[in-house]
Amino acid sequence: MTAFAFRIDAVDGAARTGAITTPHGVVRTPAFMPVGTQGAMKGVHWRDVKASGADIVLGNTYHLMLRPGAELIAMLGGLHKFIGWPHPILTDSGGFQVMSLAELRKIGDDGVTFRSHLDGAIVSLTPERAIEIQVLLGADIAMQLDECIRLPQERRELARAMRLSLAWAERCKRAFETAAATAPGHALFGIVQGGDDRELRAAGVRALVDIGFAGYAIGGLAVGEPQHVMLDMIETVAPLLPADRPRYLMGVGTPDDLLRTVGRGVDMFDCVLPTRNGRHGLVYTRFGPINLRNARHAADPRPLDSESRCPAARDYARAYLHHLVKANEMLGAMLLSEINLFYYQDLMAGSRAAIAARRFAEFCAVTMEGWAKGDLGAL
Amino acid sequence: MTAFAFRIDAVDGAARTGAITTPHGVVRTPAFMPVGTQGAMKGVHWRDVKASGADIVLGNTYHLMLRPGAELIAMLGGLHKFIGWPHPILTDSGGFQVMSLAELRKIGDDGVTFRSHLDGAIVSLTPERAIEIQVLLGADIAMQLDECIRLPQERRELARAMRLSLAWAERCKRAFETAAATAPGHALFGIVQGGDDRELRAAGVRALVDIGFAGYAIGGLAVGEPQHVMLDMIETVAPLLPADRPRYLMGVGTPDDLLRTVGRGVDMFDCVLPTRNGRHGLVYTRFGPINLRNARHAADPRPLDSESRCPAARDYARAYLHHLVKANEMLGAMLLSEINLFYYQDLMAGSRAAIAARRFAEFCAVTMEGWAKGDLGAL
Q1: What pTM did the predictor assign?
Q2: CB-CB neighbors (< 8 A) of B333 in chain A
């Protein structure tokens, strides 16, 4: 079994490109992880997720623990085998969904108790159980349990959640070390919390690094704050993180967010935007976002992007994609989600190449200029 | 442009196997046509429709005339180009959907006027307009406008609808001949009506054959009557149809319906069952229908059918398919629809080979035995 490792091949300003080695393969960084919430990518076959260029996907512990259950997945050979994705998988710890989806949640020092949004069952998630579940799933990269809270928020509350997340980080690390015998080569990441407070973030990251993890996530962002706040927090946190460990910005974001935060030293991302927006008629392209519900596409014979790597962006008229969206055809959601997954991966591939060539700033400028120009004169 | 032609290669009892040549390619018969109602196959990429073995698909005139509109599709190069399916397409005439979907419909000698189910617009469909639309769409095989009514029904009403359909058949034929200059090589089929009344069916088919069509459809079945009534009507009609023209049983059916009616001389079918049932968790297999919602699949590591040609039937555990169905994941609908499309095509391919080998009765017996045995001891 290959052990977890992170290698940086090139640095350009604060941006880095390299590779994470995991038991199920190599992840080129910067990396975007599509989100397969319930063990499936909404509207996209696994073969097309791979074809898009994704090296790694994210699975949600909260959803999978409730249905079909971590023990069942383990019995069936683990998450990779269950879903038919033999490549790297990162699982979150369940904390974020407990906060956003579950009812009647009660947070204590020991963990969180909540009512399942599926059947009302009372479920408990402790740091130890979060690790146990992720080991049962067989995640290449597991995440510590943390408490993620929405912004804006009182400083006192931010501090409390940050300290609780640190305490859970320690317990997760111990539980993971115990479990390491059953999951050799797998890795555990810690999560920096602290909201939009620079001092809390700085204090939190130092304490987290003292505990020591294979990689570090920046959590608690993309939860309602403006982009400049998010960027400010990353600028606070990134320089304090060990340079030789991957940095993962959780739940982010738009293509613009991705370029701006790669430029600030982030190596990994996950987000539901490509598939969620695809289901709602919005695609990301080199001409910027395009809303295919718009009537201006109704008779447009042009493909979305004749030069795209993505068959769906090349092979169909905008008029057809518009028709599928207006008619609520599943195929519309399927094609647009695929188009977005390809575009996100293209953005990451372009970033990696640009960083390797020490031309990342130029790449960002050209890419953003393309978005600003729009698609009216595209062909 | 290749002209429409039908060739019979082998006959076994009443069953026949052969090929229909159309401007967009050859259709091996017996043929099952998956239904792409609104210019899309629900939950299945076009490449997978082709991979399933389908030679031809059906498009719905009623839906496409209302959205996005036949003139728009023609302007964009026709239905084949619009949807990205360069193979044969048959379009229905819109009559069936007018009866089942539209509101405030009013049938007169001249045609039918109705309120669109989409936006309430008042739309009129005459025999001439039905042909015009299908020529605009570029259908390889167009259907006459007919009046299809539900069973059971008064004989007087059946006779009226049958006579109206015959009058429309004549007008459609004239309109199609006029349009033939713009659609060389394309074909028009007539539709036999007459409900569950043998005399009406027999009279109707003779009158229709007198008008003369490139192929003949049997309509007005699979509208609520028991299977034995449907088979009785086919036994009445098929021997009266010219042997050298394809026979198309509209809107049928289950795998069992298909085998029993191929055995009575039917060459073509269309039905939404494979995709509709796939979306609801039901798959057709060599072990009979399997409802993946059933809890008995929850921990079953076996694939649906390890010997299937269909990747989705081979590559995933039943437990995963069950999970996707229970979790209402789009991927569940996508995989199960694909499995059904493959199975229907396998049934047609098996029928063709068996008829060619003059062993169709044996093929039916073995296949039905497999369905009856079920899947409990499958692997």
Answers
A1: 0.97
A2: 330
